[in-house]
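TA notes, week 10

Several of you asked for a full example with nothing omitted. So below is the full record: structure tokens for the whole chain, then the designed sequence directly under it. When grading your own attempts, check the secondary structure regions first.
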């Protein structure tokens, strides 16, 4: 082993190079994928792992996914030890009990060999439009066991020594409803892995593999040192928080998520004792996914200069009771587990706000809403529309929320209305922001997003996974909660209120109006600058009535100027003088 000292310039060059490779992998998937779930919603992640499976670089994709890559990689190496892996091998899995998260999220790992030696792994995970099962889209929240959710793939070789596993490809093709999109998106993942191999070989040609391996180890150690240094500056102690999921789509009862974060020196211990046992509905989260959410929440309050790799995982210990919603056992269902991940992030942020109140915003929309519409056209050809509607954030310690901004756990985008209407028998009748929906505060929570879908086919299955109706996004430091979510069927005809999670049959002309929750506010609303309230009124984000009721700001309905005397009276809690 070389004893040559680590050069700071070479260190930066290699660190930035592998980060760029992971980002270029993401762009490759966007450019080559078939489904709107990947190319528009961008529900996928990319990364690079060392030969030992440790994550050394993350792409700018979904933080909610990335911390799960090491567990999936460990599953691969348990089944295929490094000495058995050959050039041209490619591995696939989606089984939550072997390192996966839920069945639609398919992992593909491709080993990269340098002059005959295993040097690294290219890693991708992407949400497939469909993996079979009882409901189109394979993500229904009312499935009650994993066997109903679709094709369950253990750790297998998708390619062996460069030769495709035709049996597995045919099995996938015959078990999914839209094989052209699924196989096309799998090929996009493979293209990203091939691009990573090409670029890493260029890097190895310049620096040689032994040098790269030494710098990969130093990069992880450097990240660990930075993370420990930051944690050491946090106040030692125990910090607890509890949040709730409204229900699991089967039983109408609240589901608690309880966390205790212990800061001890330069280490964090995160314990989820007191959280709900695993549930009947398909919102159970694999333990790998639970750990991934913890890593992203902690990373979110750290300084931005810390690299994004497995080095910052090292000071963090995570535990969750076996057979709980955060560490389930067979036959737990997982399809809609994203909801639990988002709520778990909120729970973590609630505890972390006590450690770093200057870095944590109020709760946002509570995670995106999953909407799936699937069926058959007049020629009996299957169609599936899947999207994850991203809403808005919570107010920040020193600023308003950004309206329409995605949850911090994901770097996603809403599918353009035009793309929806071209790709599926769905028309978007309304897409916008809802006035008076952001939590009042000194800094206002983000406005709720509304999206209205009209079905123009003959018949389809509609599936929706939403939440934050009973337990609204919380505010901080005196800020008020955001507006709750709602699902309304045919608002112009029957205006029937639907549950937050459901699966149902729809026919031509049926319309779903979905309103996301609004973000929580930060600080006392009566401390908000009246001029900022007036600006919100002029922008139609806040009504005249809400300005008066929530902020104590009186605005003349004719001139739209602030009535300073009445505002002072309202904020002082003084009764109005008799007429």
């Amino acid at each position: 082993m070389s004893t040559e000292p680590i050069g700071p310039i070479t260190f930066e060059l290699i660190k930035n190079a592998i980060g760029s490779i992971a980002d270029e992998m993401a762009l490759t998937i966007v450019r080559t994928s078939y489904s709107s779930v990947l190319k528009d919603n961008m529900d996928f992640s990319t990364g690079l792992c060392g030969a030992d499976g440790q994550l050394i670089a993350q792409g700018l994709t979904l933080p909610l996914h990335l911390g799960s890559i090491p567990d999936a990689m460990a599953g691969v190496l348990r089944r295929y030890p490094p000495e058995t892996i050959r050039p041209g091998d490619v591995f696939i899995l989606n089984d939550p009990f072997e390192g996966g998260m839920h069945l639609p999220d398919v992992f593909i790992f491709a080993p990269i060999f340098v002059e005959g030696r295993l040097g690294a792994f290219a890693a991708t995970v992407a949400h497939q439009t469909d993996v079979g099962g009882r409901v189109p889209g394979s993500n229904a929240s009312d499935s009650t066991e994993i066997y109903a959710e679709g094709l369950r793939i253990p750790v297998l070789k998708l390619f062996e020594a460069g030769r495709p596993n035709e049996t597995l490809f045919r099995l996938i093709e015959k078990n999914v409803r839209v094989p052209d999109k699924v196989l096309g998106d799998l090929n996009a993942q493979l293209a990203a892995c091939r691009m990573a191999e090409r670029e890493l070989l260029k890097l190895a040609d310049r620096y040689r593999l032994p040098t790269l391996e030494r710098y990969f180890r130093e990069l992880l150690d450097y990240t660990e040192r930075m993370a420990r240094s930051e944690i050491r500056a946090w106040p030692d102690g125990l910090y607890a928080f509890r949040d709730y999921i409204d229900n699991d789509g089967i039983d109408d009862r609240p589901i608690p998520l309880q966390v205790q974060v212990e800061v001890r020196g330069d280490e964090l211990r995160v314990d989820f004792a007191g959280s709900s046992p695993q549930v009947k509905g398909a919102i159970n989260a694999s333990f790998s996914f639970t750990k991934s959410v913890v890593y992203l929440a902690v990373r979110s309050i750290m300084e931005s200069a810390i690299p994004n790799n497995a080095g910052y995982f090292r000071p963090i210990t995570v535990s969750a009771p076996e057979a709980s919603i955060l560490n389930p056992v067979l036959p737990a269902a997982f399809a809609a587990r994203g909801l639990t991940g988002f709520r778990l992030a909120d729970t973590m942020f609630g505890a972390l706000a006590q450690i770093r109140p200057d870095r944590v915003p109020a709760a946002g929309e509570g995670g995106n809403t999953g909407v799936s519409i699937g069926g058959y056209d007049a020629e009996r050809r299957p169609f599936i529309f899947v999207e994850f509607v991203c809403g808005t954030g919570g107010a920040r310690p020193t600023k308003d929320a950004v309206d329409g901004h995605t949850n911090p756990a994901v770097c996603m985008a809403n599918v353009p209305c035009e793309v929806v209407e071209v790709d599926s028998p769905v028309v978007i009748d309304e897409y916008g922001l809802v006035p008076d929906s952001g939590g009042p505060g000194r800094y206002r929570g983000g406005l709720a997003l509304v999206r209205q879908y009209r079905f123009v086919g003959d018949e389809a299955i509609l599936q929706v996974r939403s939440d934050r109706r009973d337990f609204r996004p919380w505010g901080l430091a005196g800020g008020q909660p955001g507006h709750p979510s709602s699902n309304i069927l045919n608002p112009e005809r029957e205006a029937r209120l639907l549950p937050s999670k459901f699966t149902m049959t729809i026919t031509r002309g049926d319309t779903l109006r979905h309103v996301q929750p609004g973000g929580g506010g930060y600080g006392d609303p009566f401390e908000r600058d009246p001029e900022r309230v007036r600006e919100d009124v002029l922008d139609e984000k806040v009504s005249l009535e809400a300005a008066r009721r929530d902020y104590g700001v009186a605005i003349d309905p004719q001139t739209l100027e602030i009535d300073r005397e009445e505002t002072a009276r309202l904020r002082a809690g003084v009764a109005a003088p008799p007429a």
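DSSP finds 13 helices and 20 strands in the chain. Use that as a sanity check on your answer.
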